[in-house]
Amino acid sequence: MSIHLGQAGVQIGEAIWTQYGLEHGIGMDGQRMAEMADGCDTQFHVCPAFYSENGEGRYVPRAVFIDTEPMVIDQLQAAEIGELFNPDYLVRGKEDAANNYARGYYSLSHRTLVGAIDAIRQMAEDADNLQGMLLYHSFGGGTGSGVTAHLLQQLEEEFPRKTRLSFSVYPSPYLCTSVVEPYNTVLMTHRSMNSMECSFMMDNQAIYSICSSRLSIERPSYANLNQLIGQVVSGVTASLRFGGDLNVDMSEFQTNLVPYPRLHFPLVSFAPIITCENVNHENHDIGAITKQLFEPACQMVRCGSPGRGKYMACCLLYRGHILPKDINEAIASIKATRSVRFVDWCPTGFKIGINAMPPKMAPNGDLAPVRRCVTMLASTTAISDAWSNIDEKFDIMYRKRAFVHWFVGEGMEMQEFSEARENLACLEMDYREADSGVSSDVSEF
């Protein structure tokens, strides 16, 4: 089940389901595609895990869209893809969360989530065997932080044994859409720390840089950013959607990427990221694209200088015709280089997934069509730099009590600020201890 929350989650959802439709041969109206625009027949691949069939040959995404205001979901319904989604699972409120975590969590979530929980229950009942939930949201928005935190707590109570994974848009170091993003991020992370199994982080600035420097897009728009995110998410979920020789299911992500319950924020990388002009001039063998994953230019979060931090675990998800022998050689080559370091207590470090279904790029899209690609989910101690960066911004504002009255005015206690900040300081310390190899139990807040 996919749950899209807030403006970021809904707009990312539009790109993701467009990408899934291309790969499964399902049109914007939910019907099987007969022919692609270029005249080539597109293969139809049934996907009961992500689409439910209504009995008349129409496929409906197992997705719920939630927002506290109507505008973004109205735009989704008016878009070409809008006909694909079940209107009963498009849940919207009447007023926005104003980039305020407290407004989303305390004031609006009770009203908004009534319909959302009913929709999620209904979808769970319709599923034969619900494996888990994928959430898409931003840390910095009012709905993405406040409503998501409240929803996660309710999901934990209603579906305690189901895996909850999220794709989260993390605040960028220098590029932000809201002044109070540090508050929202710290408060949301504190509140949902124990309700989430794994959160794959991406930041707008890193993706913006990829679009401008690697894809030569002069002024990247959200549509460009979301198309790249859609491709990355597609790489992660390919093993859940297609049969494969060495597939990875939802619980395996958690088992292999989360060494301690609190350290559940893997870094996402994708390769190859290449334009149509350069596609015939670059090396696409397994060794080359695997090596690219460890370059900062292919990573979806900016965290510290290159070479900082150590890897605790890497999950490499390959797509296309790939031989395990080539992957083993590529990994051996990476282990031999000194630039990629692993913590002492995790000598193996790599989890491999291979899916024979080649990637499919959007027609006239930014990325060049390639026969194989790889997505990496990496548990790295370098991510602590991203947390310390946001904590530092939090401290600068909170020292002056700037903007605090907007949060307290929505019914939040002042004490929650200091509790949240203390919890995030513990998270930073946990990552540092993992890096240094200090033998200690990671803190339970």
From TrEMBL:
Keyword annotations: Cytoplasm, Cytoskeleton, GTP-binding, Hydrolase, Magnesium, Metal-binding, Microtubule, Nucleotide-binding
Swiss-Prot/TrEMBL cofactor(s): Mg(2+)
SUPFAM superfamilies listed in its UniProt record: Tubulin C-terminal domain-like, Tubulin nucleotide-binding domain-like
PANTHER family: TUBULIN
Any one of the GO CC terms: microtubule
GO biological process: microtubule-based process
UniProt subcellular location: Cytoplasm, Cytoskeleton
Catalysed transformations (reactions): GTP + H2O = GDP + phosphate + H(+)
Source domain of life: Eukaryota
Biological function: Tubulin is the major constituent of microtubules, a cylinder consisting of laterally associated linear protofilaments composed of alpha- and beta-tubulin heterodimers. Microtubules grow by the addition of GTP-tubulin dimers to the microtubule end, where a stabilizing cap forms. Below the cap, tubulin dimers are in GDP-bound state, owing to GTPase activity of alpha-tubulin.
Entry similarity comment: Belongs to the tubulin family.
Record-given protein name: Tubulin alpha chain
Subunit structure: Dimer of alpha and beta chains. A typical microtubule is a hollow water-filled tube with an outer diameter of 25 nm and an inner diameter of 15 nM. Alpha-beta heterodimers associate head-to-tail to form protofilaments running lengthwise along the microtubule wall with the beta-tubulin subunit facing the microtubule plus end conferring a structural polarity. Microtubules usually have 13 protofilaments but different protofilament numbers can be found in some organisms and specialized cells.
InterPro entries noted in UniProt: Alpha_tubulin, Tub_FtsZ_C, Tubulin, Tubulin/FtsZ-like_C, Tubulin/FtsZ_2-layer-sand-dom, Tubulin/FtsZ_GTPase_sf, Tubulin_C, Tubulin_CS
